[in-house]
Design brief:
By secondary structure, the protein is of the alpha/beta class. Helix content is about 30%, strand content about 20%.
Length: about 220
Amino acid sequence: MSSIVIFGASGRAGRAITTEARGRGHHVTAVVRNPGKHGDIAAEDVSVMQGDVTDAERMSSIVRGHDAVVHAVTPLNGPEQGFGDLDPEFFVKAADALLDGMAETGVPRLLVVGLFANLKDADGRLLMDDPAIFPAEIRPFAAAHTAGLDRLKAQNSVVDWLMLTPPALLEMGTPRTGRYQIGGETAPPVLAHLSYADLAVAMIDEIETPHHHRTRVSVFN
């Protein structure tokens, strides 16, 4: 049994990963911004804690004593919220806080939920740079996410990180199959899909038996 910190445990991906981890006998520290709003997360083998994935000062105290960390945080609820309040450095700050805090406390494995927009098309161009595929109004969020990925790649950290990037069609409520495919930097076929439940399977698989190291891969059905 492992002890796993999940930042963003109240979100769709975070809840699915928490459920998968519990089902396999792992203990979860569920980190959310406002625990009072998410009392339903608490359960046997799940401890709820207030925290912020960009909080460098508290990071070591949050992750200390755990075996792995999952970063499933998004600073926005959706495009309808707009991007006026988006911190373009959010994912960079998160990467720095996580890598520094985990290195300091000896937590070895970091799993991050990626964004399909910075996968590449068949010509090697980022999907986010093609307005026919990716809406221009959402590009600030994609750029912020990409900056975080670039920071992970640039840091010469002892932390063994991996970003798992689902396709654009990420399905809520679709049953868990336990099956998925792993790709590389190129986007999967247009009709590729994945359930949050199977994204969680891939995440916990990589914690239990790491196969990919200090890289970003796509995951899809």
